[in-house]
Write a structure and sequence with these properties.
By secondary structure, this protein is α/β, with parallel strands linked by helices. It is 37% helix and 15% strand. It has ten helices and twelve strands. The strands form three sheets. An eight-stranded parallel β-sheet has the order 2-1-12-11-8-5-4-3, sandwiched between helices. A two-stranded antiparallel ribbon has the order 6-7. A two-stranded antiparallel ribbon has the order 9-10. Helix 3 packs parallel to helix 4. It is globular and about 55 Å long. The model has no long low-confidence stretch (mean pLDDT 95).
Amino acid sequence: MSFQFMKEVMSPEELKKILPLSDYAVKVKKERDEQIRRVFTGESDKFLVIIGPCSADNEEAVLDYMNRLAKLAEKVSEKLLVIPRIYTNKPRTTGEGYKGIVSQPDPEKKPDFQEGLLAMRHLHLRTIDETGLTAADEMLYPENLPYVDDILSYVAVGARSVENQQHRLTISGMDIPAGMKNPTSGALSVMMNSVIAAQGSHTFLYRQYEVNTSGNPLAHTILRGATNKHNQNISNYHYEDLMRVFEMYEERPQLKNPACIVDANHSNSNKQYAEQPRIVKEVLHSRRMNPQLHKLVKGVMVESYIEPGCQKVGEHVYGKSITDPCLGWDMTEKLLFDMAEIL
């Protein structure tokens, strides 16, 4: 075999014992989960903003950002419900590059998953305790979920993972909202099929156990744009795209809590991060024009950090992304105030 078994890492139970939730964090998570759930069920008309760095690469810079975000979230809380992005696992199209803090707690050193698991959980716990916000993360590796399943309030399944059976089935056992992105091809039917699978009940093999799940009624769609055969980016956040998603839900009455989140970056922005505010405002305009879209579109995703743009690993600009480029803090602050005013 070509596998070289390096070392055995700690179990989720061991990690949770080393880094347990505080009583305050348990209380905050319960309250936040209920607030977010009410948005997806339609009991709350607040608009979700899932926002933060492309990748959570540096604990101190991320916590600096999160503390700023918490103060801003409070100011716009009448209209917006802010969920910080703390993405600790990063998919790589070619398998090369920085794969997130769970893989490389220090982006300039070799992978160390034992230290990475500690760093991942520590960052999430500090965020809750210091800011009162529970976060979203991407479920890149389903087997990593038990390490943070008591912390997260939202999970996203990325464009390269959404067709994977294990991702879909794992989501079916979760009790928090999970967004299923359209694949890079843009096929909306694939996205909808993943929601059907995630909302269903399944029996499968998971972490050495045969398990049964009851289905996740909060699984929903995320539009992130697509890439055609010529490697050109195609957006799917316009009014007509949103209406098509609405119609696809109408064709599938078995689905519970129809909902759509729009990712304002990635292929939707043609990877031009500064376009995100314009895209968000167009989505809000479409939502205001049509009661059906007002009910369907529950929020947006925005990539944002302290400094605008991105940098290469090793350049050491504080609060600047080392993966995809992000909005800077000034544009972030303006965007959330503008959103609150529009809503």
